[in-house]
User: Fold these one by one.
Assistant:
Number 1:
Amino acid sequence: MRGDGRVANAWLALLSRDWLGLPIALLVTAVGVGLVALESTWAVALGWTAVTVGAVLAAGAVRHLVLVAREARARPVPGKLVDVGGHRMHLLAEGDAGDGPTVVWLPGGHGPGEDFRHLHLLAAARTRSVLVDRFGSGWSDVGPFPRTTAAEAEELVAALEAAGERAPYVFVGHSFGGLLVANAARRRPDLVAGLVLLDPTPLEVIAFAPPNRLVAGMRGAFLLTAVRHLFGAHRSRGRGGRTGPYCAAASIFAELSPAGLAGVGWETVVYDGDLGDLPLVLVIPRDLTGGEAVLAAARDTAEAERIARFYLRTRTRYLAASTASRLVHTPAGTGHAFPTEAPGFVVGVVADLVRELRTFSP
């Protein structure tokens, strides 16, 4: 299994190179030319088909490189690129912390820091605020494979130190980003003043929840999108169509499955008491608003009630990680996407914790 994982990650690392489409197209064309040279009827027909496909792939690969270059010119790096293990990681830091902690934001999924730009701008008016692009997202390099939560927790701290940001930090993470910052806090509690976890992913959901087609299909969707972009089947927007972000997401989502979690659970779980008395604010919706996808697995009403109970109870499991935790519910009608639905509320919760930490600092 480990050998299979190494091969898979080698392929992902190769697929993350935006230039890969051209040699693939040339290889297909060369095979076609070789078949035509055989001069048999079937070989000639198949060969010209391959030549045509190769030409189309080459045109798409060139288009992809042009779009990526155009997007890079249109969207220059807004922050600072720092060296982490021989790769460049991007951070955007603004605002003044004064005598308080610096706020560090991590969006959900494997999204770039830019996904939380709206929260960052609101927070930077009050304190020091930092957006981080994990390897394989935003303006950061793709970085090494495999992508894992454990590695990204260590890379996050290393990037902040390399950028010269001043501890202590208040880490704010949403969904999978919440799992990541909780891991960072467990590893380096000396650098962390507090945590705000925005409906963070509990690993029980990965290990024990009923099958969720949305999560199960994500890795395949990322891989398909990477291949599609490699041959120019995209528009120049957002992330410029680079294949790296999709390959990185496909890599880290491999661990977010029952089988994947079995191999990394000890390094990834943040369990009861792991965070000592670290101030922790858990922010969750009161109900499963927008959670139709998880309820779709139910075979009847009784099972739907059990699934709902499971998800609502696991949402609170991070409260046991610290003896100084508290629960805050999101505004009525908001669901898992509340950082987008209620940004002022989120920034207010973070500001309250920052204010408390300033008050009680020695």
Note: The chain has two domains: 2-74, 80-360.
Number 2:
Amino acid sequence: MMEIRHDPVAPTRTRRLAPGHEIDAHRHDDHQIVYAGRGVLAVTTDAGSWVAPGTRAIWVPAGTVHAHRAHGELELHFLGLPATENPLGLDAPTVLAVGPLLRELIIAYTRAEDEDSPERARLRAVLLDQLRAAPQQPLHLPAPTAPLLRELCAILRADPADDRTLKELGRVVGASDRTLSRLFRGDLGMTFPQWRTQLRLHHALVLLADRTPVTTVAHACGWSSAGAFIDAFRRAFGHTPGSHPTS
């Protein structure tokens, strides 16, 4: 069994990670907000994965066992909050939108060296106000628990461009599309098309972090054209993949 590291206090700091670098499963007694000022961050728990580019941050509640993975040259900003202080009222990992002001507040706060100064206390108060106002983003890719779904989802994770229908995939795993559709809703809380779109968007973020051309990303992730991919990406993230911040 893999040992899970226990770090009592979630640190407030900045850390750089090379592409592909991982921080193994661990947990904190404090809440943590993780923001990638550069690159793309993936946070994984038993419940699934969350991927955040530079326009998003991830809230990780106290006690949550989680791992990090870097995509692209990653500059991580960690912000720890006491477990008794939950400004967002969230008890599960959540992706938050990060606008220009919140971005600068996170970077300034996590880079500050004088932890007890009045200036830093005021900065923290404004930062918490901005976090409370930050919209939540539906960027969670839930992990299946049902054996049939595990097998099916593994097929799609291996090749997000696989465009077979649920009925066709059902023949591979030995289940009807009706049974699988019911499992997707009951086990993952979303439809098969919704889950596959989330998977493809997650994969697209990883490829973009490696500076893969937009057209190549579109086809590698299963979109029929670059235009269709750009439209889907804009709806999910509010900007086009060509303007996606990787640095």
Note: The first strand starts at residue 5 and ends at 7.
Number 3:
Amino acid sequence: MTLFSLIVALLLEQVRPLPVRQIVLDPLSRLSTSLVERFNDGQARNGLVAWALVVIPLVVLSALAYFLLWLVHPLVAFAFNIAVLYLTMGFRQESHFFTDIHLALRMGELDRARALLAEWRGGQYYGASSGEVARLAIEQALVAAHRNVFGVVFWFILMPGPSGAVLYRAVRFLGEAWGERRDVEFGEFGRFAKKAFEIIDWLPARLTAASFSVVGDFEDAVFCWRTQSMLWADRASGILIAAGGGALGVRLGMPVHESGEIVERPEMGVGEEADADYMQSTVGLVWRALLLCLMMLALLVIASWVGA
């Protein structure tokens, strides 16, 4: 059921992309804002309490609903799995930005590509060259593919019903909404949320990077992973970008023009300068990595059937 749920959810998401902001992000944002207003006194302890009030009920209720629906009929539980996966993962949640940037660069519309990149990542890129735009888009796509698909898939497989997918999506949201805030008045409230996401994403990020390595240039991917990833500010993102750049044979990282300044960044990956062609190669790399994961899961399912 796990494998078939994943396949159906992926196909459904390709046919009809989820309006993720209206259905998922906006309700979570309202809940997050309410908890911050009620609990935030700048202390990490209250951040832990608020985090638990969001994550634990969502995970427990999703697991309980799955088991109750299984008692009604396995097909109903199967449909529930698909529905939750549809809400928590998907290539298309952010890939339209990547596709539009790719098309703009192909058409020579650099200003439009910069504007799309700013809308996707935040910041301003009016001084960025086409190579810098392609580089930043590839980096964002590699990380987004992991967080929107591979991380969700890992926890979905690991935990009963769709509770793992719910866990990853909720913890990721709070890690970004609370853990990334640096304003003084917010204090240490988001420290636990940030650490919790780092913990649950530790193994999935490395498995995703390993998948990129297997379906791309394995030797360069592993070399970049080992020698470059620790130079990136966020270690998990550094692993994904370094391994992805090595697998593609493209140079990522490096200084870029952002918000009117030149932002110094370490070089990641190896090979040629990024351009629109490498953006197309990135799409192929992510799809091959996903097919590899599905094939491995299928082999496990077949092995369990044979063993039974």
Note: The longest helix spans residues 276-307.
Number 4:
Amino acid sequence: MSVVHPHRTGLARPRRVLTAAVAAALLAATACGCSDSGGSSSAGFDPPDLKAQSELGKGEGEVNLIAWAGYVEDGSNDPETDWVSDFEKRTGCQVNAKTAASSDEMVKLMKTGRYDAVSASGDASLRLIASGDAAPVNTDLVPNYQDLFAGLKLQEWNSVDGVTYGIPHGRGANLLMYNTEVVEPAPTSWSAVFDDAAKYRGKVTAYDSPIYIADAALYLKSTRPELKIEDPYALDQKQFDAAVDLLKQQNANIGEYWSDYLKEISAFKSGDSVVGTTWQVITNLTRAEGGPVEAVVPEEGSTGWSDTWMLSAEAEHPNCAYRWLDWIVSPKVNAQVAEYFGEAPANAKACDETGDPTWCDTYHAADEDYWKKIAFWNTPIEQCLDGRTDVRCVPYAEWVRAWTEIKG
């Protein structure tokens, strides 16, 4: 396995911690449901009336991208890792890439109008759609789109009312990892880090981001059915308060909140952490370095992430951008990115191109039953994402404030 540089590493993170100001901007863009169309969309807001490009024209000679570390590699970080140079040779479009450190930064950069496309995550994509910074995408201009896994298409974080706003790039699950020599019996529930966390006081670890509140909500969905939680990103005040209370209780047992994957590997190897949330790539690397760990999707299911390449509504180089969107999900390139980055590829044909023939099995790339257990990260807004219209759901600005309180 090559050296992996996931976009969630401490090399360029913490990744998804949004400021209250930016979260408030999302609320301003979406809470009113403002639109001239009258009525409201299934997403809880009506996007600006933007049209997708109808045909592909001549390339403009360059393309300006915003991306997570590891998504746009030209050989400068690793001479053997380069899928940019061939793109430039084939299309005549020079790639100018800006590595972003967070979804917050990506949204700010997209608002400048200087970038053509961005590899947005679920906690940024709805903001970009609602604000009119992301344009609808004509998938007919992205031939490789037809080979993407169906479970990634037309999802609530990359589409609105059947309109596609991006090209899925890859996906991953947030797993429960544990030290097999310490944590017995092997855990099958998130109770290991919530209700039973006191057993491992000071050695429990959790992801350092407001979006982690959804992990608590997902657990409560199963363990406290009276709360009637349907979507961990659509929480009314009572549901939200219950998730926050659970995390405040958990805080007493936390040894470290982490956002640096290298630090989590080190903590599990040393025994400073013995149970907590993780990603498959971290589990693999910890094992490779001798750490006695296993990781599972608990019986309650799990949260997860899916990144989407989105096109700027003000793109100066839309034709080169469309060529990039198609290139990055082409089978060979998508396989390269998945292995370098540490994720399940989006293109089904990429599984025949990976250097490790077991990669797609390990990352459950084609196992849609597996992904049905994953609640992918999304951006909470006042209009409840689960479809409720009789209550106000807690918007992300309040998640950010609560996270500060939780950590003390």
Note: The mean pLDDT is 89.
